[in-house]
């Protein structure tokens, strides 16, 4: 009886665990989908009626060429930041912009958005686009690309590749990610939704790593089409996405002399023999000095004699005449004596005598008597 009750309790616990797992899976799947038309409620003064306790500020520098543009649009910047009670100051002497909170500021995140706004303005983003950062669903990303490539020429080429001919590549990227992208100097400024900013950063970094942006744009186009299908929304898209392999076209030059590594041995190489060891082996070590000198002199003389003979041979080479080729006499072969047929020759001669000399005309012209001969005949 006890065993049966234990089995029932185990089965109940297992079924409870399974049911919990199923509920968790359902909850997770529901988190992936956001209902259409849903929007996060805006942060109002009622959410924070007492305001902020401390004042916080941010400052950024801007280049000299942006001074004229910032002067023109500064009243618009102050008006846009005044809605969220943020104070902005433009210092043309130091070349800096400062934003800070006031006593009336109720949104604690408003100063962070104001900081992003002045950063974008300093990076040559026009005011019409930069103001969008004050919206709730907007974010910005400033990507530094100046230190990603070593040589300056290569950096300029890859940056131009990101922009494309007449800005076509950048425009395609903006349409696919719903972001505004601005390439200026050593930075790329992007403004848009969070998902789009992730894609923009990936494309920019891959382009600087010598991966053409057209490959990433193709994958983005495929993802855009797949996201429209509700059945494929929760599935993996790896089977649909293309796999682009990096082809290294420049082959590495192989060295002319290839060195083969010797097999590794734990023992050290054998120590080379010293001069004393060689003399001991040959027996010269035990000879007298006079005998050693005599032997050395003999060796030197032998070497000198060999060198002399070699030198003499080299000198004599110039006086050795080259071998002439034997002259072949042309011999005209005598014609083979053929039997002459005398009777045939006689017959040919007879025929030639009977025939008139000169070839006969093909179309013989009829002989016409002149007109004065006819008159003479008539008179006669």
Automatic annotation (TrEMBL):
Biological-process GO terms, alphabetical: rRNA processing
Its chief place of residence is: nucleus
Q: Which organism is it from?
A: Hucho hucho (huchen)
Q: Where is this region: Disordered?
A: 1-48, 251-274, 312-335, 353-380
Q: What does this protein do?
A: Part of the small subunit (SSU) processome, first precursor of the small eukaryotic ribosomal subunit. During the assembly of the SSU processome in the nucleolus, many ribosome biogenesis factors, an RNA chaperone and ribosomal proteins associate with the nascent pre-rRNA and work in concert to generate RNA folding, modifications, rearrangements and cleavage as well as targeted degradation of pre-ribosomal RNA by the RNA exosome.
Name of the protein in question:
KRR1 small subunit processome component
Q: Which SUPFAM superfamilies does UniProt cross-reference here?
A: Eukaryotic type KH-domain (KH-domain type I) (SSF54791)
Q: What is an example of a GO molecular function annotated in this UniProt entry?
A: RNA binding
What are the alphabetically sorted keywords of the record?
Answer: Nucleus, Ribonucleoprotein, Ribosome biogenesis, RNA-binding, rRNA processing
């Amino acid at each position: 009886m006890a065993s049966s009750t234990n089995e029932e309790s185990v089965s109940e616990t297992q079924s409870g665990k399974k049911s919990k797992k199923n509920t968790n899976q359902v909850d997770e799947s529901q988190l992936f989908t956001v209902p259409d038309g849903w929007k996060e409620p805006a942060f109002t003064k009622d959410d924070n009626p007492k305001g902020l306790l401390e004042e916080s500020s941010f400052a950024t520098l801007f280049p000299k060429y942006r001074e004229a543009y910032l002067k023109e649009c500064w009243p618009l910047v102050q008006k846009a930041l005044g809605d969220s009670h943020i104070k902005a100051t433009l210092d043309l002497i130091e070349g800096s912009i400062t934003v800070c909170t006031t006593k009336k500021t109720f949104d604690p995140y408003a100063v962070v958005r104001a900081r992003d706004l002045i950063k974008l303005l300093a990076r040559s983003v026009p005011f019409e686009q930069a103001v969008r950062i004050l919206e709730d669903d907007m974010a910005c990303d400033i990507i530094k690309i100046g230190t990603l490539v070593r040589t300056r020429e290569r950096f300029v080429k890859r940056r131009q590749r990101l922009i494309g001919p007449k800005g076509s590549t950048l425009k395609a990227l903006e349409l696919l990610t719903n972001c505004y992208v601005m390439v200026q100097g050593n930075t790329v400024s992007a403004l848009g939704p969070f998902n789009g900013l992730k894609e923009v950063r990936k494309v920019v970094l891959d382009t600087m790593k010598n991966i053409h942006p057209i490959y990433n744009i193709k994958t983005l186009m495929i993802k855009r089409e797949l996201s429209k299908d509700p059945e494929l929304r929760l599935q993996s898209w790896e089977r649909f996405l293309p796999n682009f392999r990096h082809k290294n076209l420049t082959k590495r030059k192989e060295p002319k002399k290839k060195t083969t590594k010797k097999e590794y041995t734990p023992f050290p190489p054998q120590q080379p023999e010293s001069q004393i060891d060689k003399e001991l082996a040959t027996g010269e070590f035990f000879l007298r000095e006079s005998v050693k000198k005599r032997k050395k002199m003999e060796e030197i003389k032998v070497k000198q004699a060999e060198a002399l003979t070699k030198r003499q041979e080299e000198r004599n080479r110039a006086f050795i005449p080259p071998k002439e080729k034997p002259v072949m006499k042309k011999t005209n072969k005598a014609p083979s004596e053929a039997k002459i047929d005398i009777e045939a020759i006689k017959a040919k001669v007879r025929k030639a005598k009977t025939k008139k000399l000169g070839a006969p005309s093909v179309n013989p012209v009829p002989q016409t008597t002149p007109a004065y001969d006819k008159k003479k005949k008539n008179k006669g």
